[in-house]
Amino acid sequence: MPLLQPELAPNPEETLANYVRRVRMSLGLSQKELAERAGVHLQSVGKIERRQTTRLKQGPKSGLAYALSVPVEYLDAICKGVAVEAIASLKFCPQCWVPGTPPDPMWTHPRAKHCFACGSPLRDRCGSCKELIVSLKFRFCPFCGKSYKDT
Ligand SMILES: [Zn+2]
Ligand SMILES: [Zn+2]
Asked: How many angstroms does the Cα of residue 121 sit away from the middle of ligand 1?
């Protein structure tokens, strides 16, 4: 399962072509390597990056998401032209999350409300000051300094 990395989220206004190229470069992959990882033709990757493809079929879309290590929701959002904040958010279980590790994709799923393991309500903001979580690379809230995880 791909890990949610906020820095790999599409920017507003970013096109599919720019996004795929940016994430591919950040992973240090050539078009050929990306195509192989994604299980699509090299030509298809070329077409996407030349803006000749703006919509993706389900198969190539999940292949690309896998190869780029981004949630398939990101690619969906770009193809639909909607902001990613609306569909994927950083949520975690205050009981099960291990600070310093990425959140489980089952928590960050757009429709997830409770932890799949212990049933606790998921948290997308600091339990103390209620500021939204920007990155779970932090163990502590950058706004109030309290630990994100319940102690
Ligand atoms: Zn839990
Ligand atoms: Zn806080």
From this structure: 8
- 54 neighbors 16 (Cβ within 8 angstroms): yes
Q: Coil, strand, or helix at residue 144?
A: coil
Q: Which residues contact 150 (CB under 8 A, 6 or more apart)?
A: 94, 95, 127
Q: Which ligand is nearest to the CA of 104?
A: 1
pLDDT average per 10 residues of sequence, the chain (151 residues): 59 88 95 96 96 89 91 84 65 89 84 92 90 79 88 69
* 90 Cα: distance to centroid of ligand 2 (angstroms): 15
Phi, psi (deg, nearest 5) at residue 50: -90, 10
Same domain, residue pair 11 and 40: yes
Q: Which ligand has the minimum distance to the alpha carbon of residue 125?
A: 2
Length of the chain, please? 151
Total structural domains within the chain: 2
**pTM of the predicted structure, to 2 decimals:** 0.55
